[in-house]
Amino acid sequence: xxxxxxxxxxxxxxxxxxxxxxxxxxxxxxxxxxxxxxxxxxxxxxxxxxxxxxxxxxxxxxxxxxxxxxxxxxxxxxxxxxxxxxxxxxxxxxxxxxxxxxxxxxxxxxxxxxxxxxxxxxxxxxxxxxxxxxxxxxxxxxxxxxxxxxxxxxxxxxxxxxxxxxxxxxxxxxxxxxxxxxxxxxxxxxxxxxxxxxxxxxxxxxxxxxxxxxxxxxxxxxxxxxxxxxxxxxxxxxxxxxxxxxxxxxxxxxxxxxxxxxxxxxxxxxxxxxxxxxxxxxxxxxxxxxxxxxxxxxxxxxxxxxxxxxxxxxxxxxxxxxxxxxxxxxxxxxxxxxxxxxxxxxxxxxxxxxxxxxxxxxxxxxxxxxxxxxxxxxxxxxxxxxxxxxxxxxxxxxxxxxxx
Length: 404
What we know:
This protein is of the alpha/beta class.
């Protein structure tokens, strides 16, 4: 079976189409700080608008715990969506209540309404399938068809992702189709050399993707907090840096498997070590095998890869034809510890081939560091979904759309 796409829904003129987007954007004092996910939804929404559909947008934002919480309202998202679409966008003050019913009833062809946060209703994320089905049935009352376009949630079996897609004729939007095309290129006959860059805080978050990709890649670059577990697995002291001791044997197994397969695992040769976890912490560069020999001794904490490592990583990336990157190289939120992440991001913009930023913190990092989305081959909107896809897992939000 193949993914059901928009054309399988037939003519949409005058039809009510509910679109599950992923508009889970970061907010600070009610202001969107990164509208990347909102912009990613535009191709599908504009296609539906131009087809004369009556568009009902739904999404979650944050973790409001199944009850209304003003700090997680989608009102700022509706306003930003209106600005980006260049047309009025109505906002329903509830999800399936009176405000939502009235707003949907008032829609005209080509009109758009945004429903309030799905997670204000406990049925959205309920573990009980019956509760999810009941909530999905309420959402389905609004619509003649359903379009799933929130790639960042397709790995979740939630009411608006799974049960709603079962309750109405459903298809994938353009964003999901694009994400799958890119991820398929990463897993099926990627152009070589193929390099994967992994960072972020924990090895345990990446176990599945490492296991699944080792037989497929030529080179694995390891940075972020997880690098210290790799260094410790090779017998190096890492002072007070993040360390998952329960993963040491697993990591040693990966190192041995990589050697057996001829896959190059590139670990940092130098690290930026700080006196503590703070933006203004004192810091110095240390060799990766001498982290405890800084002025901070055993209390030092590694917060970024060093300049020599950043240069080596960048050279390896630029020499590749296919690159997938997930996870920052250091604490990029602190300018003093952002250089490694910036070097990797810059190198990805210079790849002669397919360069993919794997969503989540990596996507946030490139934007915070001043890069434009257009500089990269692709920036995924779903960090967790991307990783699970690359692990070879079945994603319920795709399976319900016919993907096998």
